[in-house]
Amino acid sequence: MSGHHTIAETEKAVQAKLGAVPLHREQMAAVSNIHRAATAIRQHLENSVLRTSDLTWTGFVVLWVVWIWGEMETRYVAEEAGISKGTLTGVAKTLQSRGLLERLGHPTDGRLAVLRLTPEGEELMADLFPKFNEEEVFVSDPLESSEAQSLAEMLRRMVTHLEANGEQRRLDLRGDTVLPPRRSGRRAKHG
Amino acid sequence: MSGHHTIAETEKAVQAKLGAVPLHREQMAAVSNIHRAATAIRQHLENSVLRTSDLTWTGFVVLWVVWIWGEMETRYVAEEAGISKGTLTGVAKTLQSRGLLERLGHPTDGRLAVLRLTPEGEELMADLFPKFNEEEVFVSDPLESSEAQSLAEMLRRMVTHLEANGEQRRLDLRGDTVLPPRRSGRRAKHG
DNA sequence: CAGACATAGTTCGGAACCGCAAGTATTGTG
DNA sequence: CACAATACTTGCGGTTCCGAACTATGTCTG
């Protein structure tokens, strides 16, 4: 099933469309395949293991992060999960309402909030993670063990590079142009 | 900036947490790094090139797909873009309202709708894509040319594998258990 | 040709999601 | 103690997102 066009066909169409334009095909293929793979894998995991527990992807990722690290301050949870703090507030609320997560104040710094799994949350993750990992094995089936390692290592380098240099790069790109205000978002109380 | 924990630290914490649990670490690292990389790259691209045109990631992907393939039936656009057809309806509406995309009926089959870029959309993509590609080069900076190729090729294999075998796998996993209804989503008009 | 079935797209409910601004507390500092 | 900085929440406006229900259209079959 799947689709009308294979990846190979898409890449050929790009070549045809952009034949005249000078562009960096290898990097384009690498980046776009990262997103294709991420989407396909996410969909598979959502519709296999996650669905049976009625967890969303983001909900699972948040639980996973907190599970791995134990108690964790919310700001770091958001960062590790790759979502904004505002979103985390809502997701955490959902997970709390299901009794999987709890929120604690920080003992010494009253500004901080700390997340921790409830016993139910721990139990769920202990049950769910092996199944999740089985599907990670399934999706990695076409890779040799050494290839999986090499893949992970290359991606790690890309992430590290972005963490180290991404912000500066974006600043350089913007230069002195001021970003237009976003189409949506809360407005200043009063001009 | 960036984070509290590096990927290496995270993998170490996983090892500590899951030391006793038998699991497949290589595949886990590969899959989770795919998602980390996809998120980081997406955020970089959104906050550099896309932001200046006030395009969302999904909006850009849809434009890109239609741009590459020319006129395209909506069902295929959704599939190529990795979103559901319901989502595409909304996204296409947004892009239409900005004058970047147009919707045409199919001449012989009244059920079909076809998407095509407007001249403004063509112009935008011709301007935007080279910039986008430059950032793809930037994020791929830590990869040798041969590595980028190998990365793309491995991911392509994973996607192909999922397209070919994912659905069957999910069916096998479900077995005869019936999925619980989703927490959200439209309900039957009447029990 | 009518009724059954299939296919394509839209609508809708509920949740996620972002970025920003503003609000609330708390902590650190001169 | 005033004041800045930090951490989180809240709320806004908009978008995205899924999947099931629904609508409209086409196709197959008796």
Structural notes for this entry:
The structure is a homodimer of 191-residue chains. Chain A is mostly helical and 191 residues long. The first copy, chain A, is 65% helix and 6% strand. Chain A has a 3-stranded antiparallel β-sheet with strand order 1-3-2. In chain A, strand 2 and strand 3 form a beta hairpin. In chain A, helix 3 (57-69) crosses helix 4 (74-81). Chain A is globular, with a radius of gyration of 21 Å. The mean pLDDT of chain A is 86. Chains A and B meet through helix 1, helix 2, helix 3, helix 4 and helix 6 of A and helix 1, helix 2, helix 3, helix 4 and helix 6 of B. Chain B binds a DNA duplex (30 and 30 nucleotides) through residues 46, 56-59, 73-75, 83-91, 94, 109-113, 181-189.
Q: Terminal Cα separation of chain A, in Å? A: 54 Å
Order of helices and strands of chain A: HHHEHHEEHH
Q: Give the chain pair forming the largest contact, with residue counts.
A: A-B, 87 and 87 residues
Number of strands of chain A: 3
Oligomer: homodimer
Give the overall silhouette of chain A.
Answer: globular
The major pleated sheet of chain A works out as: 3 strands, antiparallel
Please state the CA-atom Rg of chain A, rounded to the nearest Å.
21 Å
> How much strand content do the residues of chain A show?
5-15%
User: What class do helices, strands and sheet pairing of chain A give?
Assistant: mainly alpha
Contiguous low-pLDDT stretches of chain A (5 residues minimum) are none
Helix percentage of chain A: 55-70%
- Overall mean confidence score, pLDDT of chain A: 86
Strand order of the largest sheet of chain A: 1-3-2
* Alpha plus pi helix count of chain A: 7
